[in-house]
Amino acid sequence: xxxxxxxxxxxxxxxxxxxxFFNETLGFCPNSVLTMQHRPxxxxxxxxxxxxxMANEGxxxxxxxxxxxxxxxxxxxxxxxxxxxxxxxxxxxxxQEQLDNIWEYRTHSAFSDAERAALDFALAASQVPxxxxxxxxxxxxxxWDNGEIVEMMGVISLFGYLNRWNxxxxxxxxxxxxxxxxxxxxxxxxxxxxHDGSRY
Length: 200
Fold this sequence. Notes:
Layout: H1 13-18, H2 20-25, H3 31-36, H4 40-54, H5 62-76, H6 79-91, H7 96-100, H8 113-126, H9 134-143, H10 146-169, H11 175-184
Helix pairs in contact: 4-10, 5-6, 5-8, 5-10, 6-11, 8-9, 8-10
């Protein structure tokens, strides 16, 4: 069971209204958000930040943002967020070949050099200690402008919060997220881990 159980979607009506955003991105309201409702100011602030971070104002597509989220979550080991990110990438039109080979983004032909630069940035920025360096900067600026890099960093930082939240809380993972994770990540060892609802 989770460290703190989620509350009903009807617990806070303002959160419920804002959480409609997740019906598009995931097809359901995440248990993480339902747990944040124990302090509705946190759930509402989180959703508003999520909406702002995932808005597209440059060339960083919705699908790439979700793949950045996946690489970031993979670096930190949060299986809950890995599943959510790959599901959202699927729903936002990531190419099938990319979804099938996300683990191989550095070498697989389905990924462009610009996407590799973005995903390398996500990996370096998510590691502890942080490994963003002049080479990462040089590659990023070949393909992306300052605003687009800020959008990417927003995704990485948002998922840094989520990775800590969900791994510490042992958030119970939803069936839809499990379905996507098993489809795209199961062959390379993804499993529910502490998020199966019975580890705590």
